[in-house]
Amino acid sequence: MSLVKRIIMVSAGLDSTYMAWRMIRDGVDGLYLHHISIRNNVNKLWVEQDKRMPYIIKYFRDINQNFDYSESVFEFYGWNVVGYDSDLQALVGQKIAENLSIKHRVELYIGLHAGSLNDYHVIERRSRNVNANIWKALVQSAANRENIDEEIHYPLVDDNKDKSDMIKEMPKELLNLTWSCRHPDDGKPCTYCKTCREIKEAYEKVEKEGE
After folding, report:
1. Nearest to 187, CA basis, from 18, 48, 28, 43
2. What kind and span of H or E run contains 56?
3. 159 lies in which domain range?
4. What CATH number should be reported for the domain holding residue 109?
5. What is the pLDDT of residues 68-95, one digit of tens each?
6. Tell me: the pLDDT tens digits for 94-137?
7. Closest Cα partner for 155 from 42, 46, 2, 25?
8. pTM above 0.90?
């Protein structure tokens, strides 16, 4: 039994799927994957991601059975502003950590990629230590807080991985299961949302590097 439990916040998006896949592939001990279905009318990202998560988890289990998995659902129908996913990831991560910390040292992992550090909103929030402060406050309110790491882990940032790196490295069958578009149109990417543009630019970078 691993002395450390690593909570991996995973969606069916490219970034977190890549992060989880890499850790599962490498046989990292103590993995606990958790998917949050954040349901709202502002975007329909969750519709396609919820469909794909079972297939992604099956793919992971075919590689390595040695991880736990759970899901939660949050509904914000009728709300015009639903905020940042990372805030909710921290909240749910703390609830999981409280349960795991009874017997284990616990760490939280989020799939922020290196390219995101150029995004204005990420830069602005990091300048105020928003995510770090939220997580530290949540840890301080937890039972067994001495067993929960107060730092959020961002392995893709640490390893300087951007979306083009993930596209090149991830197995094609797993890559095809991922979904990042926030405004799907009858099961097809919209092509105009922020994540669609990022994916397009990443593929163009990979293609150019291959010339």
Report:
1. 48
2. helix 45-63
3. 4-180
4. 3.40.50
5. 999 999 999 999 888 899 999 999 999 9
6. 999 999 999 999 999 999 999 999 999 999 999 999 999 999 99
7. 25
8. yes
